[in-house]
């Protein structure tokens, strides 16, 4: 049984301004159409085409704070890019938001709109505590889309992990295959992340969380919001 998220004290110490906003949805209907998300994506793409919306680039504090964090734990952010930067670069090149499923499309939309990394896990594939911690010898990661290609993270990068199973590499660079959200996922936890309070305010994080929750709520039986930060380290 899933017991929740925990921020490791070492990560809390090194990144005291980090925060994760949680949106937990149960009874999710991810195989149906989500009209509000589809409309919002169309509007975003129209703004990009018209040049009336600019996406956060590498020099923007939203992205630069993640580049700095990656460098601090030994990752080259141009080789293994933070998810926000990878997504915005892809959208800038193509002019469209990639489509996967309504739930995934929704958190990608919120990520681009608010300039914060976003992701999600299938709750039914989580067990015990998921800890945001530094990777160690013996950890194992199986990349999304590559279930037969496990890899061992280099010790010292920030990861989400349950036991020795790593669920994300380089904090939010890449997700694991086992806990990915699919159309069949009925219980999902969405995450919005910040690494530096001076770059992204609590108010901005709250607005992004509420936007995500509002888009998810019509398509779930229950939606619960939560916050994880250094004050919850354990």
Number of strands: 10
Q: Sketch the topology as an H/E string, one letter per element.
A: EHEHHHHEEEEEEEHE
**Overall pLDDT, averaged?**
97
**Any idea what the shape is?**
globular
Question: Architecture in CATH?
Answer: 3-Layer(bba) Sandwich
CATH class group: Alpha Beta
Distance between the termini: 19 Å
Helix content: 25-40%
Structural class: alpha+beta
Tell me the major beta sheet. Answer: 6 strands, mixed
Tell me the β content.
15-25%
The CATH homologous superfamily is called Phenylalanyl-trna Synthetase, Chain B, domain 3
Account of the protein in words:
- A hairpin with a 2-residue loop joins strand 6 and strand 7 (165-169).
- The chain contains six helices and ten strands.
- Helix 5 packs antiparallel against helix 6 (202-216).
- The mean pLDDT is 97.
- It has one domain (2-232): Phenylalanyl-trna Synthetase, Chain B, domain 3 (Phenylalanyl-tRNA Synthetase, Chain B, domain 3, 3-Layer(bba) Sandwich).
- The strands form two sheets. Strands 1, 4, 5, 6, 7 and 8 form a six-stranded mixed beta sheet that branches. A four-stranded antiparallel beta sheet has the order 3-9-2-10, with helices on one face.
- With 234 residues, it is of the alpha+beta class.
- Helices cover 32% and strands 24% of the residues.
- 41% of the residues are buried.
């Amino acid at each position: 049984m899933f017991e929740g998220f925990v921020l490791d004290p070492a990560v809390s110490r090194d990144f005291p301004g980090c925060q994760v906003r949680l949106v937990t949805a149960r009874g999710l209907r991810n195989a149906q159409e989500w009209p509000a998300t589809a409309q919002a994506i169309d509007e975003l793409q129209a703004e990009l085409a018209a040049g009336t919306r600019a996406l956060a680039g590498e020099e923007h504090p939203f992205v630069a704070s993640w580049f700095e964090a990656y460098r601090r734990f030994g990752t080259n952010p141009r080789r293994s890019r933070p998810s926000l930067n990878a997504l915005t670069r892809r959208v800038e090149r193509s002019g469209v938001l990639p489509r996967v499923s309504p739930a995934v499309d929704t958190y990608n939309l919120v990520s681009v709109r608010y300039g914060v990394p976003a992701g999600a896990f299938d709750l039914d594939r989580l067990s015990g505590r998921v800890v945001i911690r530094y990777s160690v010898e013996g950890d194992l990661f199986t990349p999304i889309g590559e279930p037969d290609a496990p890899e061992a993270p280099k010790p010292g990068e920030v990861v989400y992990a349950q036991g020795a199973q790593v669920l994300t590499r380089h904090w939010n660079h890449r997700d694991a295959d086992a806990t990915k959200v699919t159309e069949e996922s009925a219980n999902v936890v969405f995450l919005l992340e910040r690494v530096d309070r001076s770059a992204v305010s609590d108010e901005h994080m709250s607005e992004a969380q509420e936007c995500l929750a509002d888009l998810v709520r019509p398509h779930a039986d229950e939606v619960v919001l939560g916050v994880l930060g250094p004050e919850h380290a354990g």
